[in-house]
Amino acid sequence: METQENTVTITADAQQAGGWWTARATSHELPPATARSLTSVTTQLKKIAADILGTPQEGIDLTVSTELPDDVQLLVDQATEHQQEAETASRKARENLLRAAVELKDTGWPVRDIASRLRLSSKTITEATSRDAASEAAPAVEAEGTEEIEDVA
Predict the structure, then answer these.
(1) Tens of pLDDT, residues 86-142
(2) Cβ density class 9-29: b for 16+ within 10 Å, e for less
């Protein structure tokens, strides 16, 4: 039994058969829970654990695992991989748009026009150009501080 700040962590396995779900704790000796849905069986097992362990339900971190058929698991794994790739592509696209906004601002484009063209909010563009200006100023300040130290030495 793992506890962390009054939280009890419980792991369990759930299986579905004949329209019913059964969840059994693997980390604790608890009676199994049975219900018509995975959500309900999870809630039931949490209630059972709370009653037996004398812990409020809010203090129980319950992770229920289900085993999928191999062909279904393959589809889920592929979907997860595609979601991660999409998130990475989305992050890169946003970074490129923000760099483009900074470049356009540096060439004199008004923030309103940049926002319209790149479909970004004016606030986002202002924040991006402010961060860019701050990051460019930081090395300049460090260099100035270094020059002063060199002149003194």
Answers:
(1) 999 999 999 999 999 999 999 999 999 999 999 999 999 999 988 877 776 555 444
(2) ebebebeeeeeebbbebeebe
List for the chain the helix, strand, coil content (%; round to 5).
Answer: 60, 20, 20
Is the distance from CB of 41 to CB of 33 less than 8 angstroms?
yes
Amino acid at 27: S
117 neighbors 107 (Cβ within 8 angstroms): no
Could you tell me the pTM of the whole model? 0.54
Spatial contact of 6 and 58, defined as CB atoms under 8 Å apart? no
> Phi, psi at residue 60, to the nearest 5°?
-115, 125
Q: Identify the helix (H) or strand (E) that includes residue 120.
A: none
| CA–CA dist 34, 22 (Å, integer) | 4
